[in-house]
Amino acid sequence: MKKLLPLILLLVGSGAGVGAGIFLRPAPDPADTAMAKEKVSVEKTAAEQSGSTEHEYVKMNNQFVVPVVDGAQVSALVVMSLSLEVPAGQKDAIYAREPKLRDSFLQVLFDHANIGGFDGAFTDANNLDVLRGALREVAQKDMGDQITDVLIVEIARQDY
Predict the structure, then answer these.
(1) What CATH number matches the domain at 55-159, 3.40.50, 3.40.630, 3.30.479, 1.10.3470?
(2) For a FRET experiment, which of 26, 57, 76, 155 has its CA 20 to 30 Å from that of 110?
């Protein structure tokens, strides 16, 4: 009991200190609030003037599974998830054409696997840049300017 009492007092005192700090906190300065709102307004106006558009990200519904063939046998499977960067409001158009995009992406992924892109250090930045560029190229060929970038969200390799 003698060792428990100081611990209880420590917890009660700490709780009271935190509660008093929250209760006695000063109100936010109205000038700071006005400056923050003005800064947001200026940033929004600058973005509109520079012509930048908002983007949204469309996650492809299912993962892509790519076999890595060595000789006549499957030596590994690569599983990856992709997302697409599109202008705001284009999400429905992407989902409507998803089967076509999946087919094109799978062809690129199979070609990448066949040239050895998933062998060795397959997560090397240069290797992934090549793959990302090929995926972006085929996506823009299929969908035009509706797709601005392809993002590799997850990638994993299971060797057999």
Answers:
(1) 3.30.479
(2) 57
The pTM (predicted TM-score) of the whole model is 0.65
- Is the dihedral angle over the CA atoms 33, 39, 45, 48 positive or is it negative? negative
Q: Could you read off the pLDDT of 117-143 as tens digits, one per residue?
A: 888 888 888 889 999 999 999 999 998
Q: State the Cα–Cα distance between residues 63 and 77, nearest whole angstrom.
A: 12
Q: What are phi and psi of 15, to 5 degrees?
A: -60, -40
Contact 83, 153 (CB under 8 A): yes
What is the 3-state secondary structure of 27-77? CCCHHHHHHHHHHHHHHHHHHHHCCCCCEEEEECCCCEEEEEEECCEEEEE
